[in-house]
Amino acid sequence: MTLNEALRLALDHFRAGRAAEAEQVCRAILNAVPDQGEVTQLLGTVVMMQNRPQEAETILRQSIAIRPDLSDSHSNLGTVLQSLGRMGESLAAHDRCVQLTPGTPEGYVNRGSTRLALGDRNGAATDFARALRLRPIDVLAAANLGVALREGQRMAEAIRALTRALVIEPGNGEAMLGYAHALRELSRLGEAETAYARAVTLTPAKTEALCYHLYLKQTLCAWGDYDRLCARVRETIDRDGGVVIPLATLSIETTPAQQDRSARLFYDRLVKRASTPPMPARATPRPDGRLRIAYVSADFHEHATAYLAAELFELHARDRFEVLAYSYGPDDGSAMRQRLVKAFDRFRDIRSVPLDAVARRMADDGVDIMVDLKGYTKQTRLDLLSRRLAPVEVSYLGYPGTIGCPHMDYVIGDRFVTPPEHQPFYAERLAILPDAYQINDRHRPLPDAVPSRADCGLPEDGVVFAAFNTAYKISPAMFALWMRILKRVPGSVLWLFEANPLAAGNLKAAAEAQGVDPARLVFAPPRPLAAHIARYRVADLALDTLPYTGHTTTSDALWAGCPVVTCLGETFASRVAASLLNAAGLPETVTRSLADYEDLAVALAGDPDRRAGFRKRLEEGRMTAPLFDSRRFARNLEHAYQVMWSLHQAGRPPQGFILPAG
Description:
By secondary structure, the chain is of the alpha/beta class. The chain is built from 26 helices and 14 strands.
């Protein structure tokens, strides 16, 4: 066999996906005729295909040494380096590829993918657009352009790019899923639901699409296929049938073990890198001995997390702690954003900062403890979870469950949301605070003026049950329970938050189907925070959801003096309201079964004196109850940080602990 014939055979194996056979032929060629740049490049590629990235890197660098002008060697090296988490080197390799072949679209697509992974959405969009100009029928470039534009909040442009991808290839499931995401962001929810259903059909193996479809149906309260979709999600977890979005497990009936399993698999398959560089060397210890705490989030603006935590950042004891923000979310120019910037000793905007540079910045800043406030929630930067960025890492507040990440050392909880017996369901160690795990801001609005029932569209008479949790938390079983309560309390109404008109229409139809006049459902439109909290003073009783209970919603109700009825579930998300009610001094409204929940709501509806007593207790304890004693909370959290740091300094691994009340 001649050299050319052997090379053609290797290429045939490669194109047919027979990587092992292609590798065997390439090695035979190189044994006979060393220093063949093209053959060495092909060998590196097929080794890469077999998931041996370190070996592939070595071979591709050999190829470049033999033939520096081979653009494919640089391109494939960039892909390998990206898989290894070495993003800066990956970008440099793709830059070289583009320099060598500026008229080839693949180079721009690959460089754009690396830029997108680095958070450089504008640069990525520029690269994908260049690729499309060179090859207008490149569906991958069009779909990725849509992703970059959507993540950069350029939704109208994203829709156009994704539509273009679907014109090129109507059956492209990735493009359809991106199109559905963009429609959802533009609040075109009916169209989004159709697009998600199509994405599930086009990519049955991509179980993430199933999760997003379920989430959209929950957002619309469109429950026709609810039970089957929930069962498919649970089956996917139990049978290891694919990736499940961890957040999707919180609002359906899942066990702590299922939530733990879904998070760990999500981390291993979508977040984890083949290898990660070590944490950069840190600055020398500071003479003042203060601990440096870095809070990392996309939510340092008008957002529920900011509404809860702003005062915490202000209250940290500056003689013992230096507090930094690492922000990768938008600057909305709001009063809250300005307040937060002032609250921190240093405010780092890392929106377009690559992971390697973030790691270097944290090391240079001497960060001791990194506190992630996002977890697996909207707009999180998953790359920040892919490697260790600080000696001690903590998950707090944003995500109510395990991250499933091996280098996330602790999760902040309390005796309700993270009881010690739940430790087996967490990759992190439990740091259990003495009161509620949730911080609250005593500067949140508390309007003196109370709107009238007429102002709120409510009847003058009858009990008003408020259920202001967002629509996707309302399950069919919970709504059926609420309808039973309305039937048992004549003249009562259910006051719901109007998340979207389609959900309102579906809830009215569901009420009618269960024999309840849809007019007994009243919808509260979105209002500024102060006006929204004032509405709780009109309500007689708040009704919680299950399995995803109210978090900020419950705190808002208790802050306004409105008692909340909840049911204690088995998972973090299903136990938050119980935690908050106990810390607010109202444990009587925590039930342990849905039957007891229903009976208690009906009993309280008929007992205005008892409701008034609860309201009086909440009003009198507003500044003294542990839930709203921000200084007490800050000291407890600081104590937890000091315990974590002491264990680290002693050379001991992370260890769960329960802080005593103090």
